[in-house]
Amino acid sequence: MASKGDYALEQEKYSAELIEKANSEQEGLLKLAKELATKELESYNEERRKEYDNKVTELNVNEKLIDEINNKSKAEIDDINNNFGARKDQVVDFLFENVINVKYEIPEVVKGFFEEKFGIAE
């Protein structure tokens, strides 16, 4: 029969084996969790990188469109200014001529009213 000391020693060895096995399993689980977390983080980073690249591309396209619109608007404004400069004297002369030489004509309704009321004829 085994003595109490031998039994305690056996129990201590058994406990040490259980602790070693638990530590080994824990290390394995931690390693697996770390690998899974790393893969998930890489996937998340890749997804965010794609979203960022899409936004940058979208902004570049919008910036090109804005530049194109600005250039077109500047060309149109330059054209308007050139046309204004070229035709300014003609417009001033036209307005001056029409303000000075006003041709007026009395409408027939008004002529008829005066003829009836005052007996005035042309």
3D structure, described in words:
The protein has two helices and no strands. The chain is mainly alpha-helical. It has one domain (4-118). The mean pLDDT is 87.
Task: Briefly characterize the structure.
By secondary structure, the protein is mainly α.
Domains counted in the coordinates: how many? 1
Q: How far apart lie the N and C ends? A: 157 Å
Strand content: under 5%
Helix segment count? 2
Q: How would the global form be characterised?
A: rod-shaped
Query: Quick check: average pLDDT?
Result: 87
Q: Sheet with the most strands?
A: none
Q: Could you state the order of secondary-structure elements as H and E?
A: HH
List unreliable stretches of 5+ residues: none
Q: Return the structural class.
A: mainly alpha
Taking all Cα atoms into account, the compactness measure Rg is 49 Å
Helix content: over 70%
Number of strands: 0
